[in-house]
Amino acid sequence: MTGPRVDEVAHASTSRILVVDDESAICSLIRDVLVHSGYQVDTAKDGAAAWEALRRKQYDLLITDNQMPKITGLELVRYLRSASLAIPVILISGYLPKQAKALTASLRITATLTKPFGVLELLKTVKKALGVDKHLTKRARHGCEPKRQRLT
Question: pLDDT (tens digit, 0 to 9) for every residue of the chain, 152 residues total?
């Protein structure tokens, strides 16, 4: 397996991500994958801890589970939006009820991932949420596209 492209690493190293999940194994796995891919990652064990972190630091992306004690992922996103924080959000959940799916548009949730999800799906969703794909597409139009590496 080859590593990320140079332009992806440069973008990743400047992107700070907050990962929120009450299941410590999932939180650690997501953190490890993102750190290995060059992102700066903080974690929180629940929505309340995440809200405190979001009030103290600036993040480029929030990845949050929905079903958590104290404050759910959707409630956390409501707090963000009511505080006028326009941070992109990836909502992850084992099950997302129809009512919650309807809220994702009104809360400007960037993407949703249903558990279980794969590492490549996670990384693709993160890159898209951070706008890496748009940046790379623009570069390709200007003839600056780096050589693509295949994952084997």
Answer: 455 554 454 455 689 999 999 999 999 999 999 999 999 999 999 999 999 999 999 999 999 999 998 899 999 999 999 999 889 999 998 877 666 667 777 788 999 998 899 999 999 999 999 995 444 333 333 333 333 333 33
**H or E segment to which residue 89 belongs:** strand 89-93
Q: Residue 150: inside a domain, yes or no?
A: no
- Domain carrying residue 73: 6-141
Question: Rounded to two decimals, what is the model's pTM?
Answer: 0.78
In a domain, 152, yes or no: no
**Tell me, what CATH number does 64's domain have?**
3.40.50.2300
Cα–Cα distance, 111 to 108 (Å, whole number): 9
Given phi > 0 = left and psi -120 to 50 = alpha, else beta, which region is 131?
left
Q: Is 146 a member of any domain?
A: no
The pair of three-digit structure tokens given for residue 108, joined into one six-digit string: 């400007």
Domain count, the chain: 1
In a domain, 151, yes or no: no
Give which of 135, 87, 134 is closest to 111, Cα–Cα: 87
